[in-house]
Amino acid sequence: MRNHNRLFSLALGAAFLLGIGSAAQAAVHYVVPGGAGNNNGSSWLNASPSIQGMINVSDSGDSVWVKTGTYVTSVRIDSNVPRSETFRLKAGVKVYAGFVGGEPDTDAGFKSRDPYTNVTILSGDLNGDDSGFTNNSENAFHVVYAAISPAETSILDGFTIMGGNSNGDDQDPNFVTDSNNGGGLFVNQANPSIVRCKFTYNFGVHGGGIYVNSTSAQFLLFKVYNCLLDTNHATVGGGLYAIGLGNLRAIPTLVNCLIINNVASGSGGAITEDSFGQAHLINCTVTKNIATGSLYDGIRHAVPADCGLNFAGETVLDDSIVYNNGVNGTFDEQVTGPVAIYHSCVQALNPVNLCQSDDGYSTSSDPVFVSSTNFRLQSTSPCIDAGGGYISNHNHDQFNVDQDADTDEATPDLDHHDRIHGCTSGGIVDMGAYEFGAVACYGDANGNGVVNVDDLLAVINGWGACPSPPTACPGDMVPTMCPSGTVDVDDLLLVINNWGACPLGNSTSAEQSMPASIQDCEDDATELYEAFTTEWHAYVNDCVEALCKAQIIDCDGY
Fold first, then answer.
1. In what side-by-side order are the strands of the sheet with 120-123?
2. 198 close to 230: Cβ distance less than 8 angstroms
3. What DSSP line would sit under 355-394, residue for residue?
4. Strands (DSSP E) found in 164-230
5. 430 by DSSP, 3-state: which?
6. Alpha carbons 239 and 206: distance in angstroms, whole number
């Protein structure tokens, strides 16, 4: 079974041959809110107001560049049904968000876009009056629609997708087909690639954020890279629902994704896989999802745990974290149904449902997130340097998510930082969506994104030899954020020299003179502690240098 799943995922690279690099070489069509000039989409000055209009006129290989703003669904799948309005993808067309408008049609212009700063929303809120999940009765059934024709080369990159309400009642004589599946994204017999998107405040009876169906046409390898599924609701499959039929398996592959705060009133708060649905999660983090109607708060495969002749798909976890879903911390609240777990952190890990595992490389220990709302890892996390390297071996950065022109590297983490920043010889990826130490923020002992007094105290309180294991010694950060076994002056200097928010810029501190004497340093100690700012960390450097020269502290050749 394991080798079969590996082959499925290896097929991703072969299926997608048109890369980001061609974005500036094919025709580009431009969209801005309200349009500009003659609205034909030929340039930013003549941009179209309609994303769908530009998708429709594009040929395979063309790109649509979309300026930051909010765009509401406007083209109906069924002309007689107002709520069938959607954004419909087209084979071979790549749709990119995050532009400010005015970028040149060059690689440099393309790479300058920033979807996280320049938020671009695709909304199903037809009346523009939503407040979370209220006032959404008129909302579009699906914000984005991909069915039959979109091929492997279709890309949607950088959008926030919200306000879909797929609440159709299949017992209603006026029921619209599939109007109860996939509020954010409906995928039917198609293989689009969804990259750097956020799905939020979408509802579906099946699949609040995403619905994937492969029951009649083809084997489906649907790709979701570096995405956030946050606060979507459903009856089953709050974040995602996948269903296949026999050999026509639906295999959504999620890489570097964060799946949080999703709710199902039935089962599968995060993900539900029905017969022959087979989700493959690679370096994903799944946490804080709830199913109010059952124990299956995290990932649910809705078939018996039969890995033999009646095998109907399995959940596959590679280098992922599934933790703290539900309220009781039981295994059934994390993953249920047949599952294969490799180098992953799964709370209350239970062998009953396992089809295959990695013979002891997985863990059920607390992953030690930075906080209840920040799911990056602290330095004491057992998930650091604990992955199996699946992402570096099989998932190269074909979508260039960090826009650095290197598509041969492992797909960067959810922060778009390089994978493999570990301390083990040769480099090992971390579990989960975020790579610890990927941001060059030395001195951040607790990994909370800022170098401050807490990190200084970690060094002071941990001074000297570390207890075993070294990972339980957060003040020990040198060399290069890897434990040396001792908290010493090198760690102190990291904190002093990198004080402030992460990642650090190149700002310079105020000029300070060398302290006249050691007594000056001692006299200023209290003030330093209480009012330490980036304006004068050079002064503290001078103090440390004076202490070294006076041999009051051992600086090892400082």
1. 69-72, 120-123, 160-162, 198-200, 228-230, 258-260, 285-287, 321-322, 345-346
2. yes
3. EEE-TT--B-S---BSSSS--SBPTT-TTTT-S--HHHHH
4. 165-166, 185-188, 193-195, 198-200, 203-206, 210-214, 220-225, 228-230
5. coil
6. 9
Return the residue matching tokens 């797929």: 166
Domains and CATH numbers, the chain: 2-394 (2.160.20), 450-549 (no CATH)
Q: Which residues contact 112 (CB under 8 A, 6 or more apart)?
A: 103
Rounded CA separation 124/140 (Å): 5
Query: Do 319 and 391 touch, CB atoms closer than 8 A?
Result: yes
Cα-atom radius of gyration of the chain, to the nearest Å?
26
In 3D space, the residue among 307, 312, 293, 311 whose CA is nearest the CA of residue 353 turns out to be 307
pLDDT tens-digit map of 252-280? 889 999 999 999 998 889 998 887 778 88
Pick the more confident residue, 342 or 30: 30
Q: In the predicted model, is pLDDT for residue 549 greater than 50?
A: yes
27 token code pair: 């025709």
Q: Which two tokens stand for residue 175?
A: 């029921």
More confident residue, 192 or 401: 192
- Beta strand 339-342 with 271-273 is unpaired
Query: Does residue 508 have a pLDDT over 60?
Result: no
Highest mean pLDDT among 30-39, 484-493, 498-507: 30-39
Phi, psi for 492 (deg, rounded to 5): -60, -45
In this predicted structure, what is the pLDDT of residue 467?
73
pLDDT at residue 14 above 50? no
| Token duo for residue 394 | 């099989």
Residue 89: name the closest of 73, 78, 101 by CA. Answer: 73
How far from 340 is each of 6, 165, 280, 281, 390, CA to CA, in Å? 12, 33, 9, 11, 14
Q: In this structure, are residues 186 and 142 in contact, taking their beta carbons and an 8 Å threshold?
A: yes
> CA-CA distance, 295 to 398, in Å (whole number)?
37
Least Cα distance to 500 among 446, 453, 436, 434 occurs for 453
List pLDDT tens digits, range 368-389. 998 899 999 887 899 988 988 7
If we measure between CA atoms, which residue out of 355, 298, 303, 357 comes closest to residue 330? 298
